[in-house]
Amino acid sequence: MAKQKKAPRPKAITPKGFRDYFGAEVSDRAEMLHQIAGVYHRYGFEALESSAVETVEALGKFLPDVDRPNEGVFAWQEFDENDTEGKRGDWMALRYDLTAPLARVYAQHRNDLPTPYRRYAMGPVWRNEKPGPGRYRQFYQCDADTVGTASMAADAEICAMLSDTLETVGIPRGDYLVRVNNRKVLNGVLEAMGLPEGEGARDNVLRTIDKFDKVGEAGVRALLTKGRLDASGAYIDGVGLSEDQAEPVLAFLTSKADDVSKTFENLRGAVGASAIGGEGIAELEQIGELLAAGGYGADRIEIDPSVVRGLGYYTGPVFEAELTFEIFDEKGRKRQFGSVSGGGRYDDLVKRFTGQAVPATGVSIGVDRLLAALREKGRMGGRATGPVVVTVMDRDRMADYQAMVAELRNAGIRAEVYLGNPKNFGNQLKYADKRNSPIAVIEGGDEKEQGIVQIKDLILGAKIAESATLEEWKERPSQFEVPRGDLVAKVREILDGQGV
Amino acid sequence: MAKQKKAPRPKAITPKGFRDYFGAEVSDRAEMLHQIAGVYHRYGFEALESSAVETVEALGKFLPDVDRPNEGVFAWQEFDENDTEGKRGDWMALRYDLTAPLARVYAQHRNDLPTPYRRYAMGPVWRNEKPGPGRYRQFYQCDADTVGTASMAADAEICAMLSDTLETVGIPRGDYLVRVNNRKVLNGVLEAMGLPEGEGARDNVLRTIDKFDKVGEAGVRALLTKGRLDASGAYIDGVGLSEDQAEPVLAFLTSKADDVSKTFENLRGAVGASAIGGEGIAELEQIGELLAAGGYGADRIEIDPSVVRGLGYYTGPVFEAELTFEIFDEKGRKRQFGSVSGGGRYDDLVKRFTGQAVPATGVSIGVDRLLAALREKGRMGGRATGPVVVTVMDRDRMADYQAMVAELRNAGIRAEVYLGNPKNFGNQLKYADKRNSPIAVIEGGDEKEQGIVQIKDLILGAKIAESATLEEWKERPSQFEVPRGDLVAKVREILDGQGV
């Protein structure tokens, strides 16, 4: 008889494009989202957690970011239990953002929800895309939207909230700027240029403007007219406008002046007699006034027509939060940290369900980028501190050690007893090191008899080991012998000294 | 030419078995998980967030709860991009619990993780099951596990942590009990009875014991022997043991005495000379000692062999947290709230990946049940309080109203300006009502001129409206006229008076 072949062991790996998050990666993010939720709540926004799974029908195809090569979702076909002939049911999919589910929720529950409906949502979204370095198929989004009002007060409020949020999580004033633009002003410019609506010329101009951040004023001028050589030496065709025709677009993009009233004057010049352009400028003026009334000056939020991100997607005001402090990129060059959040006003999101257009405006925070920024600023995730480790010198006295950690925890101190094999004491200290423990507590038989414990300052110990030649360090004790009754107080004292 | 038919509008519904969570449902849960994470962190546990998507291969089929009719997962086949001939790739699935991913993560990262590895995880899981009333296909789990140690100190620590957790989220001591049993003791009983290992007799006894909570001592006795009539009148066959044979099982289940040393004496009687049984009792004794050393007495954690939940799944200690206060069930009968958490020691979870058995112990909190319990205790989700609503009396003075909400928010008060159509003032008050607003602020042209604002106490107003005949209420003003400069102070005073 042939031997039965054993099934091979399963591979312990995440699916391609997915990853796990450990320790401070998880708790730092949770803490940041907790702080953001606090600000949103203070602004009257209500939490919403929609299901991660939607019908493909409800989800639709509304990925705003058209640059992505593959706008796929993770989808599967439901098995229909009522049909015994093996008929399959609806297609379901994981949500790819938090906006499409908001549209579904608002359409479904609009009679029960207040109007306007202010809601925030935080959670993972999934994209069935080719993964790349730093690009995962599951990531967090954090959105706030106001549905059901065309009032510019809703847009102004979201800008103010974004400013408050950044300061609350730890980006100081002066290190960020919320910049506001308006798609209607651009439409006015295109109208003033005599470019017809619909597919074609306007879209070409929009696509070109989108490169403003990358290629700058001269680049956009070339691309709007005859074209240009790109960095690789390839020739990029131009849109074919004359220099004169291109001028209003460039005037729009560069209209920002030191004085906001001068900015508006420039914009009025760029849109000429266009009604939609005038409307856009009036909207920006309203937002400016409302923000000024709330005490939000140009040091926090400014009107800036050079904001191009999202102009192709949004229908009215567009906002972006940029972090203005400098970091070194992977090539060692200094550059601004850049955008961590964007948003704007959009229409027709709910219309596909109900037939009625519902005005809405909202903002999305790039959770991972903001976390990275906070790490850059040293506001988060320096040396993540592990627990105080109570070592086990005598396996039979586990109860004594358990009593110690209970005392420490009751005093609010993070602490654990070593639970591995206690035979080799060196392993216990290696474990404490792997855990980033600030302190190890030791109580052998002798100490027990004398009613004392040894407390080892591991952070100081590491410093001494690093700079063993420095007399200054050598003379500082990193291990203390204290009466058992003083355990908690001494640990607290050392932790305070470590600034933990 | 035929008219082009428009595609029908998509239905705005969640897929069957899924639901949305609104407002306090979301924020109460987030707050509770935040508190729980705090306790776990203090105990030295590290956060882990694994991906929601796993390969079906890694996930395996390890649903612990064998009573579920359909242990399905939501799965789909990956498209293999490297194969242009339409070949499909791996099967992927949404995780159905947090334990299977822990096994995969530990196997994958074991060289980088500390040993033992204490981790907690919180998040949604998905089950492709027939939905029912109150039973959804996406729900939250909240787990803590210690992987890589056989020490009973790990089990004791988890029981202590569970006790601390319940008190931290708002279940007072005396309203809960963590009960501990041990599968090995039961194995000892079965061994003492002479029941052979492997499929068959022992499994039948285990399945019968599982009904102890439902049918009680007499019911289990009948089911172990000749069988019994169930409530519907159907005859349920018995396991076929003699009365004498059934006795040790019943002695085990009812061995709990007022004095824990008496409980242990009873258990020793039930297991007789069985080595495994003796081991189980020694483990329980160790857990008891360690907990006593940490100050956890029988008012919080007790050894109780009548805990049967999980005995079939776990391999050593088994724990369960029960809420002991009484509630009224849907039929108006008083009953104990019951279990909100369970766990125990399990082996071989990692073995399917690595071939090596790794001991582990852990606990899972029923997030939704614990939230329901907190609501029962009035610790959460009474009248969820909405924001202060600043009404709009004059559309052109939106900036004034914006300044008011900014002042209120800067003072930490939840506030919003009315953003709907302000024409009908009644609609603004209806909106405030829908938002559960505690206060409405009113500043019309006259007030503006006089430098005052009207502040309406909506909660008091509602009380007056409810009991309009009571002179007491009538005489109390529910609307106040205060100088504009006193807005924040007066709102704060009213909120404090409302106990908000």
TrEMBL record, chains A, B:
PANTHER family membership: HISTIDINE--TRNA LIGASE, HISTIDYL-TRNA SYNTHETASE
Catalytic activity: tRNA(His) + L-histidine + ATP = L-histidyl-tRNA(His) + AMP + diphosphate + H(+)
Keywords: Aminoacyl-tRNA synthetase, ATP-binding, Cytoplasm, Ligase, Nucleotide-binding, Protein biosynthesis
Gene3D superfamilies: Anticodon-binding domain (3.40.50.800), Bira Bifunctional Protein, Domain 2 (3.30.930.10)
UniProt-recorded name of the protein: Histidine--tRNA ligase
EC number annotated for this UniProt entry: 6.1.1.21
Family: Belongs to the class-II aminoacyl-tRNA synthetase family.
CDD domains associated with the record: HisRS-like_core (cd00773), HisRS_anticodon (cd00859)
